[in-house]
Specification:
alpha/beta; seven-stranded mixed beta sheet; 17 helices; about 30% helix
Length: about 525
């Protein structure tokens, strides 16, 4: 019997990395589904690709973050979703549904940036001067080893950070000035095709619903139908490695409800793939009258597992680089659940964008650097009739607002709504909006942890040199040239792990770089020089 037929594979974490790994194991490596087991500490799969009923007393809906896809870059993700059927029609793949949906609902923001006086800014001119362009060119030309752990603001003059380009780029991808210059360079290379459409976000692709309903649920249903088992409520607290330089994983230590729940012994043909860290670990929720807690003591097991196993070998990474400074990695989002369409109607009238067309709106002069997205309705499969949703976030939660004299981190959902209404200026409908809206706020201590300053050794390879039966997955592994904080990165890590350990004779799609396409590169250059 081939090893793939008798191997048992344990996938630690139930996010998109493990779900993708399970699919590649079954689809491409020939591993029987019943031999694949996913271990997830939360009661639901999907990790950061979420969309759910709000876990607060007032109810409503919530997504922790906005997820945008892109045709050119997301090659491994599309490879996966081309073979996953939708929930509604088994003859239509998730990839086909997303493609058709975006033809029907194309993105073309007409109000990407809003001025302080509530006028819509002309964002088509990026505002870069000769020094800004020279600094960008220098960053792109430097090898990563020479950039090292330096910050973004080590490479640019103050003017760069006042440009419409930087405001749009940072709010589209959630960059801060203190983040890794290496990661910014990788984003420029991966998304250079966005330079001449960053003001409209016309390159954005979205699912019909939120990421959980559009991607995770169909994928999980496909896996379950093939015998893949997901054990919820199980935390992998530690892992034992054996052999010289810890090249074989021999045992997983489990917890349930904070107590020991036994071990899993890995046989000679068994494997374990471990997702490291989590951008949504220790998420806390608030509602109209409560403030979400900022958790600082690592109650979630995601980071503790990596901290424990990192002690086994120097090439297992340095998790403290990414989870050691919450004030640099946190940000807060919010979801509005409304029983009146008056706010969305007025936003449509103001911007000229129907729901789902406008993508991200940013108040560029707001102290919180506030942004919102109005999705196509319904945004949740189980969304009630005559109910509407809106999602938003802010990058600066530790300063007072412009209309509410409190830090966002200290605000209730009602106060966050007041700040949004103040920026919109829709005074005549403000009372109706307040009366018909439930707000769910979400505090995420590690939302930007992937962008922390680091050197190559701070993240382990997906398959460390000589690793016999294990791999590392997710956002905190090192995949040369690819960009973190994307579903693509997690899916690529899964494909690398499966194809390596199971000798899959298929090509992994190459990482897309727009500069390798002369037409894209020339278009981006013309835009940057405008």
């Amino acid at each position: 019997m081939p090893a793939s037929k008798r191997s048992k594979v344990h996938l630690v974490g139930g996010g998109i990395a493990s779900l993708a790994a399970a699919a590649f194991l079954v689809r491409d490596a020939g591993v029987p589904g019943e031999n694949v087991r996913i271990l997830e500490q939360s009661p639901v799969a999907g990790g950061s690709l979420d969309g759910a009923p709000a876990p607060t007393r007032e109810g409503g809906h919530v997504t922790r973050g906005g997820r945008m896809f892109e045709d050119e870059h997301d090659v491994c993700l599309w490879n996966l979703l081309e073979t996953i059927p939708t929930l509604d029609d088994p003859a239509v793949s998730v990839r086909q549904e997303i493609r058709a949906f975006n033809i029907e609902h194309p993105t073309h923001a007409r109000a990407r940036l809003i001025n302080g006086d509530r006028t819509i800014a002309d964002a088509s001119r990026l505002g870069l001067d000769a020094r800004d362009r020279a600094d960008m060119t220098r960053l792109l030309a430097l090898p990563e080893r020479l950039i090292g752990a330096r910050r973004i603001d080590d490479f640019f003059q103050p003017h760069f950070f006042t440009t419409p380009f930087w405001c749009m780029w940072r709010t589209t991808f959630a960059f801060q000035t203190w983040h890794s210059a290496v990661e910014l360079k990788r984003y420029f290379l991966a998304f250079v095709q966005e330079f001449d459409r960053i003001h409209t976000l016309s390159g954005v692709r979205r699912g019909r619903y939120n990421p959980y309903d559009s991607v995770v649920r169909p994928l999980q249903e496909w896996l379950t139908a093939r015998g893949v088992r997901t054990d919820f409520g199980v935390t992998v607290a530690d892992a034992d490695f054996s052999g010289p330089a810890a090249r074989r994983l021999s045992r997983l230590h489990l917890e349930r409800d904070g107590a020991g729940a036994g071990t899993i012994e890995l046989g000679e043909d068994d494997y374990a793939f471990l997702t490291l860290g989590s951008m949504t670990a220790d998420t806390a929720y608030g509602d109209d009258t409560t403030v979400p807690e900022l958790v600082r003591d690592k109650r979630d097991g995601s980071w503790r597992l990596w901290e424990s196993i990192a002690k086994n070998a120097p090439d297992f990474g340095r998790p403290h680089v990414f989870c050691g400074n919450i004030d640099e990695t946190k940000w807060e989002s919010f979801t509005l659940t409304m029983t009146s369409g008056v706010l969305l109607d007025r936003i449509q009238e103001y911007t000229g964008n129907v729901p789902g067309e406008g993508a991200l709106m940013t108040w560029k002069d707001s102290r919180w650097l506030l942004s919102v997205v109005v999705p196509v309705q319904p945004h949740f499969r189980d969304q009630e009739e005559n109910t509407y949703t809106l999602w938003g976030y802010a990058l600066f939660g530790d300063v007072p607002g412009d209309h509410v004299p409190k830090k966002m981190d200290d605000c209730t959902g009602a106060e966050v709504l007041d700040e949004l209404l103040g920026h919109l200026g829709f005074d005549d409908i403000a009372d109706e909006v307040r009366e018909t809206t439930r707000v769910t706020t979400v505090q995420m201590p590690y939302a930007d942890a992937q962008f922390q300053r680091r050197v190559a050794a701070d993240r382990p390879l997906v398959v460390p040199d000589g690793a016999r039966n294990f791999a590392f997955l997710g956002q905190f592994v090192e995949i040369p040239e690819d960009v973190v904080r994307t579903a693509e990165y997690s899916v690529r890590s899964a494909m690398i792990a499966v194809y390596h350990h199971f000798d899959v004779d298929k090509e992994i799609p190459p990482t897309y770089h727009g500069l390798s396409d002369p037409e894209v590169a020339w278009s981006a250059l013309r835009t940057a020089l405008a």
